[in-house]
């Protein structure tokens, strides 16, 4: 049997699980849930408004940075806030986070306003900077919220409420795109950010009025060096992964290799510094705790699988099933429903059974089956059958957020609950970023192969006027960008115009030869290999001398016109068939590529399942432990 020891001296600790009444606890939970909902909502509500924002602020070149800035700052700050909440109490850290988040929201809404002038270089750059401020605040909400549940509820009761916290993320993924679209179309894109202000102030009022300080009793110095190093480790790594996945730089480019090298050097320095600090940002001794270690590994892998499931389902819905971007957000509601049901049901079951390991194993087993089923999708998979797969994914992955948090919190001392909770969030976010980069590379590779294969026959059978356009799509930028940018209607119009112009030019050549009345010119015309075969066969039976009289010329040209009309109609029909083939080829290519992603996802989720099998099977206590919990040694 082994036991973790507190990382530093401790002061007096109040057992809030016993001293607070149930109503006060519920009010605290309501305020924290609202704050967490704002943080989760902000990750989805902005995406719908981004096209409008980029157009009005003239900042298309910075489009992706609006999301990247938020990701970088929030991910880097999560473990820092977790440690600070252990040192100074949950309440002040959470309130500081909400205030920073609301300040960032207000500034984001003001981006591009005249009174800001050219601050930071203009409207879009202002938005990028202010989104980074938002991310700094949101990190406190994401890391501290789950720790608060551990402070005010006994271990067995935590499970009931942490299921609610997990369900918030699923709910926000549905409400975000719908609310973002409504606010952007009805009011202004600025209200996508302003809407946070009244809700955030309500959450702040609840927390200020009802929440005690929630101090852990830990007394130690702040690890400033560790905080700085974890930022230097996280930001370059996430930046390199994001740029690589987006195709801004090649994976072997000097820019990305330099960022990876800087991140690796910071990680080595971080581990060295943490091993010597009396109260490190991330106590390395936690990784001697089997439960903590295996939970972090499994949660990292689940983060990769979950984010991939959401992002690439949307890609399938848009490019294969023909949904709009907003419609695709609505179409993923079955995934959210499954996620919410899974999260809440798992929490209630954990509270009733007093155990969590086999619930985690069961959930990940279900998720593995769901990914196997997702890997069988094709271009012909109906939406109801896709929705059934989504529900299964949600049921499998929904329980993991709350159960992993419960497992980590139950395995450490009360002085380490904040850092253990934030570490889980950090590992899941890092897993999600790395997973998106991995799956993005799989998508690019698969699409390149799929487009070349599926377009080959279409290009071969297309009219010459269409072949050059299709060849460009077939060979364009790995296939992905070419397929997404291909405008079938524009291609059809261009091809039809070329076909009609070609036939008109040929007819003009024939008419000139016939109207000349020269049998020699007419004889040469009948041997012209550029004329349609059917026309040359039809003219072969016409005597050369027929063009010497006006009546003969009219008769020949009438026959030519009839033949041309028939040939032109056939070529135009061939163009329509080719474009139908193009549409089918694009859908098949995307469907097969997304299915390949889920085939890789099976491996990722299966690894998470294997890691979960090594988590010790501990029983949840009915009251809050007053010392570090006892761990299974075998």
Structural notes for this entry:
It is a multi-pass membrane protein. It is found in: Cell membrane. GO terms for molecular function: transmembrane transporter activity. Keywords: Cell membrane, Membrane, Transmembrane, Transmembrane helix, Transport. Its main location: membrane. This protein is an all-alpha fold and about 625 residues long. Among the domains are: about 10-225, MFS general substrate transporter like domains (Growth Hormone, Chain: A), CATH 1.20.1250; about 225-275; about 455-585, no CATH class. Helices cover about 75% and strands about 0% of the residues. The chain contains 22 helices and two strands. It has helices at about 15-20, 20-55, 65-90, 90-110, 125-150, 155-185, 190-195, 195-210, 225-245, 255-275, 290-320, 325-330, 335-355, 355-375, 385-410, 415-460, 465-475, 480-485, 490-515, 520-525, 535-540, 550-615, and strands at about 1-5, 630. The protein has a two-stranded antiparallel sheet. The longest helix has about 60 residues, at about 550-615. The termini are close together. The relative contact order is 0.13. Residues about 1-10, about 475-485 and about 620-634 have low confidence and may be disordered.
């Amino acid at each position: 049997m082994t036991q973790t020891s507190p990382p530093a001296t401790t002061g007096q600790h109040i057992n809030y699980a016993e001293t607070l009444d149930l109503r006060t606890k519920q009010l605290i939970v309501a305020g924290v849930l609202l704050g967490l909902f704002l943080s989760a909502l902000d990750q989805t509500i902005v995406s719908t408004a981004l096209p409008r924002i980029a157009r009005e602020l003239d900042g298309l070149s910075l489009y992706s940075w609006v999301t990247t800035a938020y990701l970088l700052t929030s991910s880097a700050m999560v473990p820092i806030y977790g440690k600070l909440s252990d040192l100074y109490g949950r309440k002040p850290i959470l309130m500081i986070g909400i205030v920073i988040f609301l300040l960032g929201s207000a500034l984001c809404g003001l981006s591009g306003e005249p009174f800001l002038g050219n601050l930071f270089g203009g409207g879009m750059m202002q938005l990028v900077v202010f989104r980074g401020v938002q991310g700094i605040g949101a990190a406190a909400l994401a890391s501290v919220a789950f720790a608060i549940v551990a402070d005010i509820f006994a271990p067995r009761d935590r499970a009931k409420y942490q299921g609610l916290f997990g369900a918030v993320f699923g709910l926000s993924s549905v409400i975000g795109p719908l609310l973002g679209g409504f606010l952007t179309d009805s009011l202004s894109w600025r209200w996508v950010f302003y809407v946070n202000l009244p809700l955030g102030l309500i959450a702040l009022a609840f927390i200020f009025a009802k929440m005690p300080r929630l101090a852990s009793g830990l007394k130690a110095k702040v690890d400033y060096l560790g905080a700085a190093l974890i930022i230097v480790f996280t930001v370059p790594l996430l930046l390199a992964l994001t740029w690589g996945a987006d195709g801004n730089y090649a994976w072997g480019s000097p820019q990305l290799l330099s960022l990876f090298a800087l991140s690796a050097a910071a990680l080595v320095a971080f581990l060295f510094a943490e091993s010597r600090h009396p109260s490190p940002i991330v106590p390395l001794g936690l990784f001697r705790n089997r439960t903590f270690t295996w939970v972090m590994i499994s949660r990292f892998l689940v983060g990769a699988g979950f984010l991939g499931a959401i992002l690439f389902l949307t890609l399938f819905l848009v490019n294969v099933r023909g949904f709009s971007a907003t419609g695709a957000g609505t179409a993923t509601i079955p995934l959210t429903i499954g996620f919410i049901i899974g999260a809440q049901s798992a929490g209630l079951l954990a509270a009733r059974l007093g155990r969590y390991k086999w619930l985690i194993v069961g959930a990940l087993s279900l998720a593995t089956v769901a990914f196997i089923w997702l890997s069988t999708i094709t271009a012909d998979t109906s939406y109801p059958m896709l929705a059934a797969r989504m529900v299964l994914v949600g049921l499998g992955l929904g329980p993991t957020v709350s159960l992993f948090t419960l497992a980590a919190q139950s395995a450490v001392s009360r002085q380490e609950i904040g850092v253990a909770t934030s570490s889980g969030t950090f590992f899941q976010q890092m897993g999600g970023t790395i997973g998106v980069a991995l799956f993005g590379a799989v998508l690019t590779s698969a699409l390149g192969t799929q487009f070349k294969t599926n377009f080959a026959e279409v290009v071969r059978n297309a009219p010459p006027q269409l072949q050059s356009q299709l060849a460009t799509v077939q060979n364009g930028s790995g296939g992905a960008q070419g397929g997404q940018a291909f405008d079938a209607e524009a291609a059809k119009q261009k091809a039809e115009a070329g076909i009609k112009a070609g036939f008109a030019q040929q007819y003009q050549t024939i008419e000139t030869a016939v109207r000349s009345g020269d049998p020699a010119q007419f004889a040469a015309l009948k041997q012209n290999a550029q004329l349609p075969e059917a026309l040359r066969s039809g003219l072969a039976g016409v005597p050369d001398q027929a063009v010497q009289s006006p009546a003969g010329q009219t008769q020949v040209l009438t026959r030519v016109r009839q033949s041309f009309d028939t040939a032109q109609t056939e070529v135009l029909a061939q163009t329509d068939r080719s474009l139908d083939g193009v549409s089918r080829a694009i859908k098949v290519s995307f469907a097969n590529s997304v299915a390949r992603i889920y085939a890789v996802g099976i491996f990722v989720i299966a690894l998470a399942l294997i890691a979960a099998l090594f988590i010790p099977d501990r029983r949840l206590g009915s009251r809050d432990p007053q010392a570090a919990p006892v761990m299974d040694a075998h």
